[in-house]
Design goal:
This protein has 16 helices and 14 strands. The protein has helices spanning 9-15, 28-37, 50-53, 62-68, 74-81, 117-126, 161-165, 218-227, 238-245, 289-295, 311-331, 358-382, 386-394, 398-407, 421-424, 446-449; strands spanning 23-24, 44-47, 90-98, 101-104, 136-142, 146-148, 151-153, 174-183, 199-206, 209-213, 249-253, 258-262, 267-271, 277-285. A hairpin with a 2-residue loop joins strand 3 and strand 4 (101-104). The longest helix is centred in the last third of the chain and has 25 residues, at 358-382. The relative contact order is 0.13.
Amino acid sequence: MASSPCVDPFLQGLLEDPSKAPSICKGSRDFIETVLVGQHVDRVHVLKDGLKLLGLADSMPLSFRRAVRGNTTIEGFLGELKSEVPLNTVDASVYYWDGKEEHRVKADSKGNRVRNLLTKHQVITQNRTRMKEPIYIGELHYTTKRRLSDGRSSTLLTKDLKDILSSHSKLMPMWDRGHAFVGGLYSGSSMHVDQTLWSNIGKNWTGYKILFVWEYGEPSLNVLEKFYKQIMKPPFSPEERKALQSASKVVLVRPGDVFCFSGGNAHMTIGVGDELSLTAYESFVNLHRRNITVFRQSGRKDHFEDCIMDESDLEDLFDDVVDNIYDVLKKYHQLQNIPTQLDTPKREDGERVFGREKEEIEADLKLRDLCISHIPSMLSELSKDSFFRRELQGLKRVKSLLNHLIRSARSDVAGIKAVSTRRRARALPLPPLHPNSPSGRGIWGMDQIAKADPPSQSVSHNDEESDPSTPILPPPKPSQPVSRKRKIHFDRGSRDSKRPLVSPEISK
């Protein structure tokens, strides 16, 4: 059965408003560049037919794709799925609605906690009069972790965009594999912001859904105060119409689309197709300064309080970001594994030995250099937060690595320029940067990083006047060993910082 959108006339009017339209990427390269260094806050970027263009169409297991196709209800989906996949090997958050209020399946009739999709399916079957369709499945994943390219994960997918981007994704401060979501007509993710104010990549295999996004700041907080954990669906009340009209972006997501937006914006999705939608997400933090600014507000006063991650979990995530940034700075010195020789070897018959076109190698080099050029700006913005500044200062060699990063930036793609004799002994070998990247040949410590200008404004340095006996950094001050588990001191403004944080029921 061919799927088609079922769009209410009021929603159709919003979709036709050009001011609320998404940015349509011209191709996979354009989308990838947007993912890595583009602004996501207050924007939605769509790559049409992106699953095919990015080589991700088969990354969702066939059994799940087969169970969704042709079904209009979650009960039908689960009935089809259990014939191929044991439901006790997968788990998810299952939601239903009493009117427009969201409820979550947590326990059976005896009060026992339900821990996998098999027991949750049984609860739905026993409570059909109360748990009516539409029902929504969120965070669908395996109950046990499997080994993937970067470790073990419970995700359903065999491959993510993270794997496609390979070494480029390792230059990001954070990248997390996500889970899958399944929903039918007028069900979806209720009004929320993410537990951490990161960016999201959505990959839609089947069905149609509408993504609503509200502008970051007061517009998002206002709509969350009124409609948090609610689904706005036909028939709309006057207040709901006003709220939906205030959305900054209204996007129809089609089968095969891949899209990117910020979880820091208030957002909501509703299914509008006659077939279930199957969508999987990845969460990450890229190198764009605006996205870093919003990410720093996670758990702070500008983050809607009911959506904040548990404080201990947020501490662990921030610690992971610090570790990842240290790895980013080390990988900056290991990027020689990306080919810099553009003349691909050929056999006598003319066939390329390595199978990579010269244009592809040039594009990879350009993308790599573009990412590198954003690293100083990312560090500058992230270091405005006292926690990250303190933790980065405590890591061994970070200051030295930052100095090398800024001082050794090159403007010649063909090769690394010669370094003066007196500097060569202490200069680490770095790959060339793109011609438009900043030279940044200054010596910056972490105290200066927080106040630094964007990378478009380079720092001049005269090698001829430098004294070879001058140390790269001032002698370190005696201090106690830095603990990698520091307590985050949240600044919540007028809110009581001792109030326990509430874990939201959904994270997407």
